[in-house]
């Protein structure tokens, strides 16, 4: 027989350890006894199980149909027998419940069934708990402690639940150890999944957007709005911002005093360099803002096809495209437009019309000042890159007025904007792209699909 006291103790332990409802455990025990009876006695039987909440005593009853003549002795009872056992009010067609006496053999079978069902109930209960707990945190940043590191993922404990962050959702190059604190963005929460109910990511564009919200009060308060984000995780990102208060500079607010705010965000992203771009409702202006410090000679936007052709100076084509097309890809994802970038000389051979509607005139383009300064920036970037290869990584924001010609590239630019331009030239110095014309593929990254 089942020890009632031990049963109650087991129910308590399970509910406390697994943090699931006591009712779920009790229903699992009842279901286990029902299945045990079906296997041991009669698979067609209808069984009712009762558990005394005070003593833990289990009672099993089988349902019998009151009939005039018995056809199945396991399921039927005669009217006379039913009235003798359950009272004179019983009539033909009624159902009565007969206690089932069971010995040690049935008890063992029942315990096995209960064990299997309880495990299943625990898994189901944990899934419900995780779903209900994390659903309200969907599309937010949460933090936890790393409990284990496997070949494919990091296992993170958050309020007693274990969340998996797959390696492909981690920022390239970053490493954590057991006991480290880690924060991540919740992409989605699903009720049931073979792998992980909570889809966690550190590479999602909105991870950066939410980090900015945490570190920039103006964003949290809705004064400054993050319009779009584009990332090459761990390497570089662009974030477009707009201020709803004309007295608040959105770029300055995001950067913070001496770059304090943007440095903290970059630190969390494993040193990812972040360009703050001024959003503009005019898409052409927005694209030119996103391409800076590259000057745009001509921009032809087809809004119907959501595609544009951009002509840039020969001297800045490589800078516009970046290493392996990264710079152009970041811009395309930021503005959500397919961008084709060509040099002015290439545009002629490809019969691409030059509209001269960009942010540099023909006179400025042909000036010796533009050419000399562009070449000078490249040479300085290459020299600085060679000189600093063995040095520790520098902060995201530095004072580099002496390295950038403000008159040529920016108007009333902040120190931090200028630094981003310097970083762009250093990227160029590291690796020149092989193909000088890049067409951005719409399905480059699923995060940026419409």
TrEMBL record:
Under the cellular component aspect of Gene Ontology, which terms does the record hold?
A: cytosol
Q: Which residues form the NusA-like second KH domain?
A: 284-346
| Positions of the Transcription factor NusA first KH domain | 202-279
Does the record's keyword annotation contain Transcription? yes
**Where is the protein localized?**
Cytoplasm
| Top-level taxon of the source organism | Bacteria
A Gene Ontology molecular-function term?
Answer: translation elongation factor activity
Instruction: Outline the extent of the Transcription factor NusA N-terminal domain.
Output: 7-127
The alphabetized list of GO BP terms reads: DNA-templated transcription termination; transcription antitermination
Which parts of this chain are annotated as the region Disordered? Answer: 429-450
Give any Pfam family that matches.
Answer: KH_NusA_1st
Q: Does the keyword Cell inner membrane apply?
A: no
Its family? Answer: Belongs to the NusA family.
Subunit comment = Monomer. Binds directly to the core enzyme of the DNA-dependent RNA polymerase and to nascent RNA.
The protein's job, in short, is: Participates in both transcription termination and antitermination.
Q: What is this protein called?
A: Transcription termination/antitermination protein NusA
Organism of provenance: Spiroplasma clarkii
């Amino acid at each position: 027989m089942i020890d009632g006291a031990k049963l109650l103790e087991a129910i308590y332990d399970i509910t406390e350890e697994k943090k699931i409802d006591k009712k779920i455990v009790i229903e699992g025990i009842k279901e286990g006894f029902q299945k045990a009876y079906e296997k041991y006695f009669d698979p067609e039987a209808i069984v009712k199980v009762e558990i005394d909440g005070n003593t833990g005593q289990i009672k099993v009853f089988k349902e019998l149909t009151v009939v005039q003549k018995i056809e199945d002795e396991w399921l039927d009872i005669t009217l006379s027998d039913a009235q003798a056992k359950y009272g004179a009010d019983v009539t033909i067609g009624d159902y009565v419940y007969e206690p089932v006496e069971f010995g040690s053999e049935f008890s063992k079978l029942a315990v096995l069934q209960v064990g299997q069902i309880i495990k299943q109930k625990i898994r189901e209960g944990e899934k419900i708990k995780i779903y209900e707990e994390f659903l309200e945190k969907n599309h937010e940043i949460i933090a936890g402690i790393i409990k284990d590191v496997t070949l494919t993922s990091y296992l993170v404990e958050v309020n007693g639940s274990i969340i998996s962050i797959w390696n492909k959702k981690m920022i390239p190059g970053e490493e954590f150890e057991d006991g480290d604190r880690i924060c991540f963005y919740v992409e989605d929460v699903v009720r049931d999944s073979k792998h992980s109910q909570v889809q966690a990511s550190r590479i999602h564009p909105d991870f950066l957007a939410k980090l900015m919200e945490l570190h920039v009060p103006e964003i949290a308060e809705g004064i400054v709005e993050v319009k779009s984000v584009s990332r090459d995780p761990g390497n570089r990102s662009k974030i477009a911002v707009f201020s709803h208060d004309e007295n608040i500079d959105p770029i300055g607010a995001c950067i913070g005093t001496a770059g304090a705010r943007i440095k903290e965000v970059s630190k969390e992203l494993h040193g990812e360099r972040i360009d703050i771009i001024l959003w503009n409702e005019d898409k052409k202006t927005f694209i030119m803002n996103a391409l800076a410090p590259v000057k745009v000679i001509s921009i032809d936007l087809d809004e119907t096809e959501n595609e544009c052709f951009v002509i840039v100076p020969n001297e800045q084509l490589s800078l516009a495209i970046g290493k392996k097309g990264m710079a152009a890809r970041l811009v395309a994802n930021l503005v959500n437009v397919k961008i084709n970038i060509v040099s002015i000389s290439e545009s002629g051979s490809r019969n691409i019309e030059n509209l001269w509607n960009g942010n540099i005139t023909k006179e400025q383009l042909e000036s010796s000042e533009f050419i000399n300064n562009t070449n000078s920036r490249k040479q300085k970037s290459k020299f600085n890159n060679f000189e600093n290869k063995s040095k520790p990584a520098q902060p995201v924001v530095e004072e580099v007025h002496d390295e950038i010609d403000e008159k040529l590239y920016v108007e009333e630019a902040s120190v931090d904007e200028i630094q981003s331009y310097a970083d762009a030239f250093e990227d160029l110095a590291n690796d020149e792209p092989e193909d000088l014309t890049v067409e951005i593929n719409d399905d480059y990254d699923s995060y940026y699909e419409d």
